[in-house]
Amino acid sequence: MMNKPRCGLPDRASQSQRQKRYATQGSWPRRRITYKIWNYTPDLPRSQINRDFANAFKVWADVTNLSFQQVYTNNANLNIKFVSFDHGDGFPFDGRGKVLAHAALPQNGLIHFDESEKWTANSKKGINLYWVAVHEFGHSLGMQHSTVRDAVMYAYYGGYQPNLQLHTDDIQGIQSIYGHSSRTTNGTSTWGRWGTCSKTCGGGVQRRSRSISGVTTSQT
């Protein structure tokens, strides 16, 4: 288990929190949360990365009253970057394997993916970006690690799953922070302050917005 790829968030939940298998810390005071993708890994097409991130946010939107909007301005609530090794936040990545990504708990907003990894989509090879995104976005919303091995918020990488869904433990955790969803869905749920989508256009680029049940992205 020690050599298995995992999230960079230390397991710091208190014993009282562990009576509930999920653990939470912090929340966003708003229900509409914006995110910006600052750069892209060359491992995948940008369209695939945009889609994987939008779908990862949708997983959490489906079981809460949260909505997510991709923006291109510099004042997003969540800021997503692909970085490697020492990238200035005091928590350097370690190269390929082991720590895959880390995310700050609310309301810091930083989400970092290790560029040294081989990021893949719809494949058991490499590291599945969508799975890791669902996990890290959970941290950015206030979820800490779960002790349930089948939960998305379990600390260790679960691998590619064609029909990834939140475990009941994940759902109970996020709903304990933000409440239940009023939408109808077909779904089944710092270091200190850290843990391992209307249309907004920037740079004069005209984009079309696209809604995905609680997530609004923009397309060039």
Describe this structure in words.
This protein has 220 residues and is of the alpha/beta class. The protein has one domain: Collagenase (Catalytic Domain) (3-Layer(aba) Sandwich). It has 4 helices and 10 strands, in the order αβαββββββααβββ. It has helices at residues 15-18, 46-61, 129-140, 168-178, and strands spanning 32-37, 67-70, 78-83, 101-104, 110-114, 119-120, 127-128, 194-195, 208-212, 215-219. An 8-stranded mixed β-sheet has the order 8-4-5-3-1-2-10-9, with helices on one face. A two-stranded parallel ribbon has the order 6-7. β9 and β10 form a beta hairpin. α2 (46-61) packs across α3. It is globular, with a radius of gyration of 16 Å. The termini are far apart. Mean pLDDT is 83; it is low at 14-19, 184-194 and 196-212.
What would CATH call the homologous superfamily?
A: Collagenase (Catalytic Domain)
Mass-distribution shape: globular
Structural category is alpha/beta
Under CATH, the topology can be stated as Collagenase (Catalytic Domain)
CATH architecture: 3-Layer(aba) Sandwich
Cofactor: Ca(2+); Zn(2+)
Region (Disordered): 1-26
InterPro entries: M10A_MMP (IPR033739), MetalloPept_cat_dom_sf (IPR024079), Pept_M10_metallopeptidase (IPR001818), Pept_M10A (IPR021190), Peptidase_Metallo (IPR006026), TSP1_rpt (IPR000884), TSP1_rpt_sf (IPR036383)
Pfam family, one: TSP_1
